[in-house]
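Example record

Each entry pairs one chain with its bound ligand, HQG.
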Amino acid sequence: MSPEYLKSLSKFLSLILRHKPEVIGIKLDGNGWADVDELIQGSLDKGKELDLPILEAIVASDEKQRYTFNEDKTKIRANQGHSVKVDLGLEPVKPPKILYHGTVERFVQSIMLKGIEPRSRNHVHLSEDVDTAVDVGERRGDAMIFKVFSGAMYRDGFHFYQSANGVWLTDHVPNKYLDMV
Ligand code: HQG
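Structure tokens for the complex follow.
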């Protein structure tokens, strides 16, 4: 199985496990878990070559560690990035003083006005390093980077979470905690 095919399957998994499980006729439970057998069968029905070893290869090789199995590998879920309402059971944790958010020029004015909103996802996504934020922004064009005063937000009572793959999450970043890099 080529790395390219695994990557395209990982994109497909992202669609199913974060946004549209109904595409293959399955449901996620309240914590975002899909039943592995149902996922495999539903995907096969849609012409996707998938079995447990292939899923294991995706979980192990995905460059952002996007997916996690439960202990006995009967369930799988995405670590973050959902638009479907799920409770990942993440505990609030103290963030670093500064986090970063990568976006593009056309969103900057609106972000300065309204802060960073989760838009279609459950959380705003932030990173500890500028390079990751640049990669996130560059998905859409030339990256523009905001510095987020997460330490100050935390002191003011905002909650932060860290997903299993290291992405920092919060509900909303008001504009007073932002600066352009
Ligand atoms: C922007 C990828 C106007 C925000 C990445 C972003 C990440 C506003 C877009 C993860 C706004 C939402 C998430 C406001 C926010 N006005 N625009 N007030 N507030 N925005 O894709 O952070 O590869 O939902 O700047 O690596 O780009 O999928 O969020 O441009 O970790 O695993 O609205 O997705 O990971 O876009 O990316 P997204 P994101 P994966």
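Residues 3-19 form the longest helix (17 residues).
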